[in-house]
């Protein structure tokens, strides 16, 4: 069994490395005027389809006021558009525009290409080690997601 200090050291090193890598993977988005919050909304709309701004605010963890400002920026940037909510005409849904979808696809391609170039500089052994670690990293990410969903569920019940 691993000592607590070993696990804490591993957790700290992994957190630092993932944060640094994540920052650099977002660079293409920021170069195109997409802040992390804007990108989060586009990804959520791409994965979940049209949503009310209030639902998106909850998904990405921001206030209604912040979501309102974010919505204006996304509409002005032509990444999303408003559409009437089919269940409540007083409300609206945000929809990813074709421009937004293309921008998101381009950013994913560009980010993957940059990361592929970086991976190409590693030794075959290092790439194999990353390949073996990938399912473990996905499991850790899923655990964090499940914990966040549980916390939101508990929060909404209280």
Automatic annotation (TrEMBL):
The segment(s) forming the HTH marR-type domain are 7-139
Superkingdom of the source? Bacteria
InterPro entries, sorted:
HTH-type_Bedaq_tolerance, HTH_MarR-typ, WH-like_DNA-bd_sf, WH_DNA-bd_sf
Question: SMART domains of this UniProt entry?
Answer: HTH_MARR
PROSITE patterns, alphabetized: HTH_MARR_2 (PS50995)
Q: Name one GO molecular function term.
A: DNA-binding transcription factor activity
Task: Give the matching PANTHER family.
Answer: CONSERVED PROTEIN (PTHR39515), HTH-TYPE TRANSCRIPTIONAL REGULATOR RV0880 (PTHR39515:SF2)
Could you tell me what this protein is called? MarR family transcriptional regulator
């Amino acid at each position: 069994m691993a000592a607590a200090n070993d696990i804490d050291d591993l957790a700290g090193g992994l957190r630092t490395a993932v944060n640094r890598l994540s920052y650099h993977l977002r660079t293409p988005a920021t170069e195109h005027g997409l802040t992390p919050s804007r990108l989060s909304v586009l990804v959520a709309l791409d994965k979940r389809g049209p949503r009310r701004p209030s639902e998106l605010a909850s998904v990405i963890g921001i206030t209604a006021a912040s979501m309102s400002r974010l919505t204006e920026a996304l509409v002005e940037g032509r990444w999303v558009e408003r559409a009437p909510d089919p269940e409540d005409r007083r409300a609206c849904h945000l929809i990813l525009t074709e421009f937004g979808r293309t921008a998101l696809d381009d950013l994913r391609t560009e980010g993957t290409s940059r990361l592929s170039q970086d991976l190409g500089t590693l030794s075959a052994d290092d790439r194999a080690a990353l390949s073996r670690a990938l399912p473990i990293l996905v499991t850790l990410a899923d655990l964090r997601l499940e914990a966040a969903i549980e916390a939101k569920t508990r929060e909404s019940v209280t």
